[in-house]
Design a protein that fits this description.
- This protein is mainly alpha-helical.
- Helix content is about 60%, strand content about 5%.
- It is built from 30 helices and 8 strands.
- The strands form 2 sheets. Strands 1-3-4-5-2-6 form a 6-stranded parallel sheet, with helices on both faces. The chain has a two-stranded antiparallel ribbon with strand order 7-8.
- The two termini are about 60 Å apart.
- The relative contact order is 0.09.
Length: about 750
């Protein structure tokens, strides 16, 4: 975790966000699953749903479809979504609701799309709340689908409400908690097909495939044996079509396979028998797929898909070298090497047999596996094979991760990579951590921070530390890296004291265990110095940074990213310590090196250029500072987005330069926007808030807006007293300034 120290730490908001282009209606957010072949309309169930909807006239109609895995809840919701889109609903949002973070992310994206007031910042939680406010009052028609709720108690705050009668919510879940029926929500049980629906499905599916002759006397006994479970019927129909096997013959295969599954999926673990039905149909289909070209790759390919997020993963993973290498190790015909084309063919083979769904039009969620299918695969896979699949997928996810991953055009891909990486953590038994935690786990934490999702990053690192301790023990060598990730998240959210406590311990441990010049020791020192810097302990930060710059250059070279970070941080510390000549000289060299190594719009390059502009400004060279600060802000808005934390930092730096140049009327609204943005990203105690508010008070004073200046300073003094105490130097300085300003105002009055 290498930390880049900013110049003026600031962040995002909306009150001063310029209006974007008019919203184009209709808007569609998320990917609605395609309807399965021979989709059954389920008229009786639909009538129940529509009856419940009529009870909500004038308010948001909310139905929760609940039932076991594979009964078709999501397909039913998809049918409603497709109909709503066809009928011209203004806003349609399909949300993977498997966790609150996913819901918040989808809502935040939607808030930006509809230009919900207050939803343009980089704080996803604030943007999500802004969307809920917009939904409650808009005259636009909308449908929100919350698919696969797994933690109903944790999404209770995120149910859309309102009284306009223009909106509707559909949710799907396997849970039946009482909380799901709170606040007027209607819970509707979705069970398996009835007998006519099962018969209708088989008839339509086989007829559409040009194989009506496969509907023989075994059809009715087969649907009964499969328990009328839609997902099991889908597996069976795909097999029969591909293998030209009739219902009676398939029933014989199924019965044999079911008996073999008694040991691995005993009935005592599944009172309805659904998992066993899925497992049986799965193995029948796999037998056939394994014999098809590319021979022998269907099973290892399905094991790869089963450890990923059921909501979908990018199909580019199937062309990755790690996936190809994994399939090569499981290739039963070594004389025929596994190529990229054969790896992709294995994925398409699974699609043909109904074991996964591949739709390239859906982008980063192009490949989906039903959660129940994936679970059956994982539960029947030997542990060593499962861990090998997880390792291969971890490497493929890392290869797919863009660097940097903060460009708005990459948002959907990055969101998919995050949820798929999180799925690996849930599915491993601990092998993922040997010999070290894979880099992709660290990348996920860094990605959350880079995206301004500070609280989500804290939750992620805390969860990862807990899982690591439980699976491989708290003494695992990789645990130190995870603690440093948590410290980094604490620092970014303003919890500096907690960050320092962790980092001081990590530096001591690494010096003792690895030596003074080990790259990991140097990395830990960089982080500690950044926290000292943020806490105002600049002299201590400089002492560490000067040593780290020398050591990094010796060990890694002058142009290594870690060395560039260390030099950049040292330049920022020199500036804060009023050593302007040294700060400028060093920042100029680092800026040139960053442009050469990383390009002129890489986030690290923009950070060091922002620091250089601040150094020019504080040295009185404002005319040189302004064009650089303007360039950094424009590039940040273009590459990161207007509400990204680094963009807001750039905006704060430009405001400071305008102020020093006497362009007060331009600086004030810009800094007001920065302060609003800070409040949406950081905790109240984060130093970014006081710094920007103190600067704004000074601008008000210069603009002779003395009442606003004094009021701002009074609030700042009260906060400083509350957070750091009455005797803290910062509080004492603020109190003295406030007394002076009040005295001047009092003396100026007649």
């Amino acid at each position: 975790m290498q930390v880049n120290q900013g110049g003026v730490n600031s962040q995002q908001n909306n009150f001063y966000v310029q209006a974007g282009p008019p919203v184009g209606w209709p808007q569609r957010v998320g990917v609605v699953p395609a309807l399965a072949s021979a989709f059954q309309d389920r008229a009786g169930l639909r009538a129940t749903i529509e009856t419940s909807r009529t009870r909500h006239s004038g308010a948001v109609s909310t139905q929760v479809l609940t039932g076991g895995g594979g009964v078709g809840k999501s397909q039913l919701a998809a049918a409603y979504a497709i109909e709503a889109a066809r009928d011209g609903v203004d806003l349609l949002v399909w949300v993977d609701a498997s966790g609150p973070d996913a819901v918040v992310a989808a809502y935040a994206q939607t808030a930006g799309r509809v230009q919900a007031p207050g939803g343009g910042g980089s704080d996803a939680v604030v943007a999500a709340r802004a969307l809920l406010d917009w939904l409650a009052t808009t005259e636009r028609t909308w449908l929100i689908v919350l698919d696969d709720i797994t933690e109903p108690e944790r999404i209770e705050l995120w149910w859309p409400t309102g009284a306009t009668g223009n909106g509707r919510v559909l949710a799907t879940t396997r849970r039946r908690d009482a909380i799901l029926s709170d606040h007027g929500r209607t819970v509707i049980d979705v069970d398996v097909y009835d007998e006519p629906e099962s018969a209708g499905y088989l008839a339509e599916r086989l007829t559409a495939a040009g194989a009506p002759h496969l509907l023989d006397t075994g059809a009715r006994p087969l649907t009964t044996a499969l328990g009328h479970l839609p997902l099991a019927l889908s597996h069976a129909a795909a097999y029969m079509v591909n293998e030209a096997v009739g219902c009676a013959a398939y029933l014989g295969l199924f019965t044999d396979r079911r008996s073999q599954l008694d040991a691995v999926l005993p009935s005592t673990t599944d009172s309805r028998g659904w998992r066993r039905s899925i497992g049986a149909t799965l193995l029948v289909a796999l037998d056939a797929a394994q014999a098809c070209e590319p021979v022998g790759l269907a099973l290892p390919a399905l094991r790869l898909a089963a450890v990923l997020d059921p909501a979908g993963h990018p199909d580019k993973l199937w062309t990755d070298a790690a996936v190809v290498a994994h399939l090569s190790r499981h290739n039963p015909a070594p004389d025929r090497g596994v190529t990229v084309s054969r790896a992709r063919a294995a994925m398409r083979l699974l699609h043909r047999y109904g074991l996964l769904a591949h739709d390239p039009r859906t982008g980063p969620r192009a490949v989906r596996v039903h959660a129940l299918t994936a679970r059956a695969v994982r539960e029947t896979t030997p542990p060593a094979e499962l861990e090998a699949a997880i390792q291969a997928v971890a490497d493929a996810l890392l290869d797919a991760w863009p660097d940097p991953d903060t460009h708005p055009d990459q948002a959907e891909l990055v969101a998919a990579l995050r949820t798929n990486t999180a799925a690996l953590i849930d599915n491993t038994a601990g092998g993922l951590w040997y010999p070290d935690p894979p880099v992709v786990l660290l990348t996920l934490g860094d990605s959350l921070l880079a995206g301004g999702l500070h609280q989500a990053a804290i939750r992620y690192w805390e969860h990862l530390i807990s899982v690591t301790g439980r699976l491989v023990g708290h003494r695992h060598p990789g645990m130190a890296t995870l603690w440093l990730g948590l410290a980094d998240a604490y620092r970014h959210s303003g919890r500096t004291a907690e960050a320092i406590t962790i980092e001081e311990q990590m530096v001591a441990d690494r010096e003792r265990n690895l030596g003074d010049q080990h790259p990991n020791t140097l990395s830990a020192r960089i982080n500690l110095a950044a926290s000292y810097w943020q806490a105002g302990r600049v002299t201590e930060a400089i002492t560490i940074e000067e040593r780290v710059v020398v050591d990094n250059a010796q060990v890694l070279g002058d142009l290594h990213p870690n060395t560039l970070t260390a030099r950049m941080n040292l330049a920022a510390s020199y500036r804060v310590a009023d050593r302007h000549a040294e700060a400028i000289e060093l920042a100029e060299r680092v800026a040139a090196d960053c442009v050469e190594v990383q390009g002129d719009e890489h986030p690290q390059t923009l950070t060091v250029l922002g620091n250089l502009a601040s150094s020019y400004r504080e040295a009185g060279r404002v005319a040189e500072a302004i064009p650089i600060a303007e360039r950094v802000l424009a590039a940040s808005e273009r590459t990161l987005g207007e509400g990204h934390p680094e963009t807001v930092t750039a905006r704060a730096n430009l405001a400071a330069s305008y102020a020093d140049a006497g362009r007060i009327t331009e600086a004030i609204p810009m800094l007001e926007r920065v302060i609003n943005d800070n409040g949406r990203v950081y905790d109240e105690a984060h130093p970014s808030g006081p710094n920007a508010r103190l600067a704004l008070a000074g601008l008000y004073w210069k603009a002779e807006r003395t009442g606003e200046a004094i009021a701002t300073l009074e609030r700042l003094l009260a906060d400083s007293t509350r957070f750091v105490g009455e005797q803290h130097p910062q509080t004492v300085k603020l109190a003295a300034a406030l007394r002076e300003w009040k005295s001047i105002v009092s003396g100026a009055q007649p």
